[in-house]
């Protein structure tokens, strides 16, 4: 319903829009979410992740464009956030995606770039975020004389704190101090001449002088001399049973509806959580006729110690304490219950919120279920504090520190001037460390002036002194406020197993607890095994909770930084970045940097094993399974956690035909080694199917056939020549014309004139297959050690002594299965194993309708493309990435992202109607096109087992190695795969 405010009225002509076939009223300039809420509609879309329950609806949750739970389709454009998308009138809004078929295609989300050159802009100081901190920083830098640009994703400046009135409303006079201060800050920016760009999505930064944005749907790369991150915070998740029901939202989301759009989140509202923001929302709603059933505060009623803090807060900010008193009085006047020391413990309702269960909390944070009560409500607003939006800073490699409050989260380490560990990069406000709007404004002013002065712009030396004094006062107030609202520690152990933990993927607490208890107890491993954090919100609402679960169930300190940083920090339209780029001529070979992020592990002293496999990737898993089933005592030694590096970052293609760069002029060693490997492809796919059947689990193996498409007659000639070579090696390759291709794959571009088709190709889920293979190997008797870095290997008589970071291992046989690091392992025994690492990128989109069934490659360009069982489209094809030394991470490159997306959209045009969710870089193994298998010359008992087509061929090379070791002969002639083929490899 719409709120009636004395000083606020409509500023827009009423319009209409259609939602799932219903004509609904709206005010031009308000968001779709606000218009739906005004019509009493809480259910916005059907959940499209996890179990895909068709009765499971989702609604507005965060209200600030961070959770993506409210995405809808607007005029054919999928993935639009209802909380940010403005209504102009006449829109057709749907809760579901287009089907992707001829009459219902995905509409492009952005216009294609006009030319091959992206727009770039240089600026003295770039500020990301126009909340209190960003506006203060921009104003201070501008007053020093610097050229300043402020980028903000929202349509209006002010951030989550100031929340200006939407264009659909106008005020006869601004209702309160918060609105007035926001308007004053905005006027000061305009008067100073600060360039403020609204609707700008900053999706990442690769370097401090390379900030990637989309402005009005167009790609712009900013190259600032100084970068100030004022990215704000998002509300900390508080998972309870039913928290994904429509009608359950954050306090911030409800406040945005009420303050900015004049719309109530419901008719009967419960506000629950911790902190004064909940009181402000509840009193505002009550003052405007909404029934606030209760305010549920997890902190106990303030006692004597808190009253002392209250006195300190009153001295630091008397006007804020007075406001708090007015909130309490307003609630009392309207008969709203104030439940101190209570928490919301469940939300009920089959398809949207109907009831809220609350219970008192003990000092240990546990709810007393025996004293619980159930309240009727159609809206539950949860506000339990905030998490700093550190994503851009972490992507750049800025150092983090631990913020121990709430569940414990990461904050950015900054100096007294707001500078991070990276020179020239500042972080201010809640985006660095959550401390409230007054601290944010003071730190913004200090950082803005410091950045400008560091560039040589003049400034009054005393100009920041008021900000520094204000900062000290604001910090005293904030400290006192936290003391007043000190709540019991969060206890996750009582949350039922069936409760959703990861909103995007529908993963439950029970699933994650079971994984941790089974030993898969790192965030990276949980992500790969379960898809935790892989959805649209990019782990914002699950990473902290999962990290706390790991701590509670293992006793180890929780990982502070969460998942490894990935770009984009928010999804962006694929169409906006699709630019043609030059094709490279081969793998960009790199060294083999030590990427170890090894889990904590105790020393083990001395142990023995019959066979030691070095490397816990997919090849190591297959070797463990082969030897364990053969009755051998096999031990896998892994420096990090299993499946964490090259294998875990793999795209999961099951290649049988030659890739375009394995044949012809681009091929390594003339293409001969790659051609010699062809017989292993179909054999490996069959082995994978056998392993999956024996393991009793779904590896998501889909032998759908593989297409290598062509756009030109030259491309078709290339495919025909390649197919002849493949047929000579036993591959059943067919050449398809235009019409045959269209019949087989109607979702591909009509500009394609033909393709080569190999029916035996397909795909596999590497996030499932490797782990289940390891589990089967362990069940058969294999052992493994993680967090164990091999530092030396020596021959002692008839055995090998392997020195590691945790102890010494004696073994009769050593198998080098270290993938990109195989050269380092070989060097330990005096061998030159010519294996190189070549960091490559991959990209995945949001879930899409069925667009392509086959594994798709391109004859002339680098492309590997497939649609996953989840619906996302995975795009790769050997576009290079880079190694960031200061982060010890492989990271993606802008040119590669642009070029990869351009090729992908030429082949599957409807990718232009999707958002890119994630890009990442994996360490590819680069040899000469063929594996290295067999006992090393002059090193009895030392075997190599490495392949550059690692995932497909892993079970094949493992089988050959086991056969050679146990019988002295193999199912295939391994002469083309032996180390001796390389000149200089002999002892």
UniProtKB/TrEMBL annotation:
Statement: the UniProt record of this protein carries the keyword Phosphoprotein: no
Keywords of this entry: Oxidoreductase
Pfam families: DAO, Fer2_4, Fer2_BFD, Pyr_redox_2
Record's keyword annotation contains Oxidoreductase: yes
Record's protein name: FAD-dependent oxidoreductase
InterPro entries for the chain: 2Fe-2S-bd_N, 2Fe-2S_ferredoxin-like_sf, BFD-like_2Fe2S-bd_dom, BFD-like_2Fe2S-bd_dom_sf, FAD-dep_OxRdtase, FAD/NAD-bd_sf, FAD/NAD-binding_dom, Metab_Enz_Cyan_OpOx_G3PDH
Domain FAD dependent oxidoreductase: 611-964
Phylogenetic lineage: Bacteria, Pseudomonadati, Pseudomonadota, Alphaproteobacteria, Hyphomicrobiales
Species the sequence originates in: Jiella pelagia
């Amino acid at each position: 319903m719409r709120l009636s405010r004395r000083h606020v009225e409509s500023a827009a002509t009423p319009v209409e829009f259609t939602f799932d076939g219903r004509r609904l009223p709206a005010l031009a300039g308000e968001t779709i979410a606000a218009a739906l809420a005004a019509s009493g509609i809480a259910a916005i879309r059907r959940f499209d992740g996890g179990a895909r329950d068709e009765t499971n609806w989702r609604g507005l949750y965060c209200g600030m464009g961070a959770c993506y739970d409210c995405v809808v389709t607007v005029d054919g454009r999928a993935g639009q956030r209802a909380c940010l998308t403005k209504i102009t009138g006449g829109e057709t809004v749907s809760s579901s995606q287009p089907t992707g078929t001829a009459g219902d295609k995905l509409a492009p989300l952005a216009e294609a770039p006009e030319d091959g050159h992206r727009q770039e802009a240089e600026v003295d100081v770039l500020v990301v975020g126009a909340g209190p901190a960003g506006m203060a920083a921009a104003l201070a830098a501008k007053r020093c004389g610097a050229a300043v640009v402020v980028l903000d994703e929202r349509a209006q400046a002010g951030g989550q704190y100031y929340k200006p009135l939407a264009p659909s409303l106008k005020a006869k006079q601004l209702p309160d101090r918060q609105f007035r201060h926001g308007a004053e800050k905005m006027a000061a920016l305009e008067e100073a001449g600060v360039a403020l760009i609204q609707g700008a999505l900053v999706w990442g930064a690769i370097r401090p002088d390379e900030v990637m944005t989309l402005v009005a749907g167009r790609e712009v790369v900013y190259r600032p001399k100084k970068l100030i991150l004022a990215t704000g915070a998002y509300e900390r998740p508080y998972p309870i049973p039913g928290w994904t029901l429509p009608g359950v939202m954050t306090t911030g989301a409800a406040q945005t509806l009420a303050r900015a759009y004049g719309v109530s989140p419901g008719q009967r509202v419960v506000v629950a959580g911790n902190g004064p923001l909940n009181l402000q929302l509840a009193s505002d709603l009550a003052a405007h006729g909404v029934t606030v059933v209760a305010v549920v505060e997890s902190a106990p009623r303030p006692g004597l110690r808190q009253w002392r803090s209250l006195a300190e807060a009153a001295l630091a900010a008397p006007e804020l304490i007075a406001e708090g008193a007015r909130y309490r009085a307003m609630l009392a006047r309207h008969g709203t219950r104030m439940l101190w020391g209570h928490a919301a413990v469940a939300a009920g309702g089959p398809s949207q919120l109907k009831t809220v269960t609350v219970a008192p909390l003990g000092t240990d944070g546990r709810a007393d279920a025996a004293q619980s009560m159930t309240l009727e409500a159609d809206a539950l607003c949860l506000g339990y504090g905030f998490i700093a939006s550190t994503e851009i800073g972490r992507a750049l490699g800025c150092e983090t520190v631990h913020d121990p409050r709430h569940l414990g989260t990461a904050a950015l380490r900054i100096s007294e001037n707001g500078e991070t560990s990276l020179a020239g990069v500042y972080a201010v406000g809640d985006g660095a460390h959550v401390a409230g709007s007054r601290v944010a404004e003071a730190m913004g002013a200090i950082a803005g002036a410091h950045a400008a002065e560091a560039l040589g712009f003049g400034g009054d030396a005393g100009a920041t002194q008021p900000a520094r004094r204000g900062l000290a006062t604001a910090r005293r107030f904030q400290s006192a406020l936290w003391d007043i609202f000190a709540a019991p520690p969060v206890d996750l152990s009582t949350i039922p197993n069936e409760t959703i933990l990861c909103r995007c993927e529908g993963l439950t607490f029970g699933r994650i607890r079971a994984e941790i208890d089974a030993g898969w107890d790192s965030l990276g491993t949980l992500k790969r095994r379960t898809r935790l954090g892989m959805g649209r919100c990019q782990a914002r609402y699950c990473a902290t909770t999962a990290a706390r679960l790991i701590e509670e169930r293992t006793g180890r300190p929780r990982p502070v930084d969460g998942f490894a940083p990935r770009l984009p920090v928010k999804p962006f339209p694929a169409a906006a970045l699709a630019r043609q780029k030059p094709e490279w001529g081969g793998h960009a070979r790199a060294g083999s940097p030590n990427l170890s992020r090894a889990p904590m592990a105790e020393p083990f002293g001395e142990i023995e094993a019959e066979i030691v496999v070095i490397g816990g990737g997919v090849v190591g898993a297959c070797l463990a399974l082969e030897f364990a089933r053969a009755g051998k005592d096999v031990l896998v030694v892994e420096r990090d956690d299993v499946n964490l590096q090259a294998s875990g970052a793999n795209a999961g293609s099951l290649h049988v035909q030659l890739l375009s760069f394995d044949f012809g002029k681009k091929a390594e060693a003339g293409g001969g080694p790659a051609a010699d490997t062809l017989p292993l492809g179909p054999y490996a796919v069959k082995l994978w199917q056998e392993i999956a059947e024996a393991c009793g689990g779904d590896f998501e193996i889909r032998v759908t056939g593989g297409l290598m498409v062509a756009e030109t007659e030259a491309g078709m000639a290339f495919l025909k020549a390649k197919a002849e070579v493949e047929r000579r090696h036993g591959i059943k390759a067919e050449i398809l014309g235009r019409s045959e291709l269209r019949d087989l794959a109607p979702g591909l571009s009509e500009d394609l004139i033909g393709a080569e088709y190999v029916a035996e190709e397909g795909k596999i889920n590497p996030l499932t297959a490797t782990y289940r293979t390891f589990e089967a190997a362990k069940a058969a008797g294999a052992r493994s050690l993680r967090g164990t870095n091999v530092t030396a290997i020596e021959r002692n008589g008839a055995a090998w002594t392997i020195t590691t970071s945790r102890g010494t291992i004696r073994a009769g046989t050593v198998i080098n299965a270290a993938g990109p690091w195989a050269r380092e392992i070989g060097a330990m025994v005096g061998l030159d194993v010519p294996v190189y690492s070549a960091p490559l990128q991959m990209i995945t989109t949001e879930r899409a309708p069925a667009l392509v069934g086959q594994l798709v490659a391109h004859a002339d360009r680098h492309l590997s493309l497939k649609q996953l069982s989840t619906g996302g489209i995975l795009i790769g094809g050997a576009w290079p990435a880079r190694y960031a030394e200061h982060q010890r991470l492989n990271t993606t490159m802008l040119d590669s992202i642009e070029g990869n997306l351009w090729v992908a959209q030429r082949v599957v045009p409807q990718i232009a109607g999707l958002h890119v969710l994630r890009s990442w870089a994996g360490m590819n193994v680069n040899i000469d096109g063929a594996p290295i298998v067999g006992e090393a010359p002059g090193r009895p008992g030392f075997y190599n087992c490495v392949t550059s087509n690692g995932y497909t061929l892993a079970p094949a090379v493992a089988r050959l190695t086991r056969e050679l070791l146990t019988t002295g002969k193999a199912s295939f002639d391994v002469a083309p795969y032996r180390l001796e083929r390389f000149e200089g490899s002999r002892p």
